[in-house]
Amino acid sequence: MRQAGRYLPEFRELRKSHGFFEICRTPELATEITLQPIRRYSGLLDASIIFSDILVVPQAMGMVVEMHDGAGPVFPEPLAAPGDLDLKRLRDKVDVDKELGYVFDAITMTRKGLKGEVPLIGFCGAPWTLLAYMVGSSKSMPSPKQWIFKYPEESKRLLSRITIVCADFLVGQIKAGAQLLQVFDSNAGDLSPHDFATFSLPYLKEIASSVRTQLSSHSPPIPIPPMTLFAKGANHALPELVDAGYDTLGLDWVISPQAAIAATGGPSTKVALQGNIDPSILYGGRDAIEREVKRMCEGFKSGGSEGRCKGWIANLGHGITPGVDPADMQWFLECVHKYSS
Ligand code: CP3
Hints:
Largest sheet: 7 strands, parallel
Radius of gyration: 20 Å
Order of helices and strands: HHHEHEEHHEHHHEHHEHEHEHEH
Structural class: alpha/beta
Strand content: 5-15%
Oligomer: single chain
Helix content: 40-55%
Bound molecules: coproporphyrinogen III
Strand order of the largest sheet: 1-4-5-6-7-8-9
């Protein structure tokens, strides 16, 4: 997951003739790419994640986002000052069915294409991470953090607006057939503990609670799916994240399994853990991959003095990068099966 397709030749081949957001907006193409790793690693993966991007939410709000080869995402007109929040181009109310219906269509089509082989994960970016992209960087405002320090109240207004779209978007993904949800706060680690508690955590909690309320008050009620939160770089906040309304916490690799188990309340905790091997291990050759996978599995299975964790989903601590050899990826998956069984 997480920009994972980039290392697969079959993805690159399709990308030669299609733009990134064109693929996101074309359910047949998004379905095909979602299925690629499931086919290639048949029997080795336990879930798929819909091909899309966290930046479809800023687009739905009215912003222009381009994906430049080699440079990643570009916002040609970032929000430069609080006055920009009133710009006509930034929609205040977003009808997710209208603006993001193409993601819902891709999810429904992918569910059919998966034929029950593995469940399908829907996702969105966290409000803080999305704000950081939306205010971008310009000469007058070189860091997204300047926004929260200079304009704290307007930043909170923007975060609340993004939160509503994210929650509605996740609910729509469940209605369309997604079976799990994941929220990516990839830029959480840019914030100090105090700023994370002020500008990220309340909105993460609001998303979880709004999704739960909307699904349970739907007629007929829709079962609440497992929800995962990945707050990269915010391990300092793990004790509070246990109560943020998510079932699983994704971990980056700069915390040991033992420390993560201890920080989240040991075996009697509410949350399962997901992670957390350093994705660079995939460049380390087969012996290193096997050695480190074994270490990760033992860490989560034994847990040390705190006892083992409640539940664990083996994963990388962040995304796969483009230079990874797909055969080494397969070896990684085989090692996970060997040492976690
Ligand atoms: O893994 C998958 O293919 C599933 C779909 C998915 C993508 N992006 C596709 C993608 C998911 C779950 C994401 C999440 C995403 N997107 C995050 C959160 C996870 C993380 O990595 O922290 C973030 C921050 C983004 C924003 C984004 N999209 C960036 C920074 C980039 C550029 C990456 C780079 O270094 O080039 C993207 C592009 C992107 N999103 C690609 C894919 C397959 C590669 C782009 C391409 O084909 O040109």
